[in-house]
């Protein structure tokens, strides 16, 4: 079925998800196979030769991902970081320079600083919500990648994708947007001029905390097609592909993405407002609040504010730890984006790897991934936690 002219929620359910032609099974099968029979040497059926190079379950997911982001091509990887690694090692050579947000996912910062740093790639971290700072950080001729994450992690800063895409493209840099936090249901960076989208599909796309995966989605146009082709080769040659079971789980999760993101957004806003009222909370970082500095921009470039929020505790690190260890429904764990609510203490958990760097997260910060449980139960959990501060 060609879903190009269908709306988002229809594409999420149908793009790449044709019924099985041999049996009529409504759901495309999980092709648990490493290799494919050839009809004579080189006689491939549907182009499949060996599952590192291609697998129909993975193709189904990649088609779905490209349709959701409005991209020309998508690749599915074993993890979000595997996707980032494949992209960066394809487009960078030693001596190149990367501009990266100062509030990005800790693992992205670690990958660029430690793995690519050792390889001779330099980077500058900047507040990407400050366009002048980004302009000043770009080194004409050597900056090859501008890496944007919005909303950022964990401080939920909002960066202007359209303005950054213009800045990056003028400088000849590839503009990469990590769209994990918003998901394509709430934000469409390719439409705003980005070149490549990165996802940890582990989070909202999978949506059920039961699979690790990553993806790249490439925008249309000759230059981007050329990058996509080179990254496809890297994926094939270096091998960080997603397996068929992982691809299936991710595809299944994606079908409910639109409706989940609506509920995540509603629940998170209710919790942000409740937290904002309490003396023990110094600040609530949620783009859906009028008090958030990026509220207006988020309203323009997103179609909802999402399920992630962070808080700064008035009582500092000690109070933050107590908060993170006192919730009941919000389970203390890394990761985010699942149907269940999670609480995380970034400075010791997700962002421990950036301690002592320019991307360090203050000890007073707690991050919440607000799930899609009944909001009254979530609010009651927040209330009992606040009483214990
Ligand atoms: C989790 C995450 C990643 C890394 O993805 P993995 O699937 O854990 O490798 C990258 N970016 C963001 C924003 C993330 O939350």
Automatic annotation (TrEMBL):
Looking up InterPro entries in the UniProt record yields:
Cys/Met-Metab_PyrdxlP-dep_enz, Cys_met_metab_PP, PyrdxlP-dep_Trfase, PyrdxlP-dep_Trfase_major, PyrdxlP-dep_Trfase_small
Q: Where is the signal peptide?
A: none
Keywords attached to this Swiss-Prot or TrEMBL record, sorted alphabetically, are:
Pyridoxal phosphate
Its required cofactor(s), as named, are: pyridoxal 5'-phosphate
Please report a single Pfam family linked to this protein.
Answer: Cys_Met_Meta_PP
| Listed PANTHER family | CYSTATHIONINE GAMMA-LYASE, TRANS-SULFURATION ENZYME FAMILY MEMBER
Family statement = Belongs to the trans-sulfuration enzymes family.
- The name of this protein is Cystathionine gamma-synthase
* Taxonomic source organism: Agromyces humatus
Give the source lineage, highest ranks first.
Bacteria, Bacillati, Actinomycetota, Actinomycetes, Micrococcales
């Amino acid at each position: 079925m060609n879903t190009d002219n269908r709306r988002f929620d229809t594409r999420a359910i149908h793009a790449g998800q044709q019924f099985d032609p041999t049996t009529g099974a409504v759901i495309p099968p999980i092709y648990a196979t490493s290799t494919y029979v050839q009809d004579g040497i080189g006689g491939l059926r549907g182009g499949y030769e060996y599952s590192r190079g291609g697998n129909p379950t993975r193709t189904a997911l990649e088609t779905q991902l490209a349709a959701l982001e409005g991209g020309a091509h998508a690749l599915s990887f074993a993890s979000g970081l595997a996707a980032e690694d494949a992209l960066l090692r394809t487009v960078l050579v030693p001596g190149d320079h990367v501009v990266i947000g100062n509030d990005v996912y800790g693992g992205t910062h670690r990958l660029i600083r430690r793995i690519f740093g050792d390889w001779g790639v330099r980077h500058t971290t900047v507040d990407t919500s400050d366009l002048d700072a980004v302009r000043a950080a770009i080194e004409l001729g050597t900056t090859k990648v501008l890496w944007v994450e919005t909303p950022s992690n964990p401080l939920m800063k909002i960066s202007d994708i359209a303005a950054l895409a213009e800045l990056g493209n003028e400088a000849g840099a590839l503009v990469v947007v990590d769209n994990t936090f918003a998901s394509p249901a709430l934000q469409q960076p390719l439409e705003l001029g980005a070149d490549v989208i990165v996802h940890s599909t582990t989070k909202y796309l999978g949506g059920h905390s039961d699979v690790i995966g990553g993806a790249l989605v490439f925008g249309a146009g000759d230059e981007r097609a050329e990058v996509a082709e080179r990254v496809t080769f890297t994926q094939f040659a270096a091998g960080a592909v997603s397996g068929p079971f992982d691809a299936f789980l991710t595809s299944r999760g994606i079908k409910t993405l639109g409706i989940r993101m609506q509920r995540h957004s509603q629940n998170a806003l209710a919790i942000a407002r409740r937290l904002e009222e309490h003396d023990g909370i110094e600040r609530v970082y949620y783009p859906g609040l009028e008090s958030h500095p990026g509220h207006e921009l988020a309203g323009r470039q997103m179609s909802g504010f999402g399920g992630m929020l962070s808080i700064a505790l008035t009582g500092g690190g000690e109070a933050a730890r107590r908060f993170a260890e006192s919730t009941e429904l919000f389970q203390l764990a890394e990761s985010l984006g699942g149907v269940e609510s999670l609480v995380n203490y970034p400075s010791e958990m997700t962002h421990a790897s950036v301690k002592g760097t320019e991307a360090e997260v203050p000890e007073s910060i707690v991050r919440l991934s607000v799930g899609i449980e009944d909001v009254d139960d979530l609010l009651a959990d927040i209330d009992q936690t606040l009483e214990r501060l």
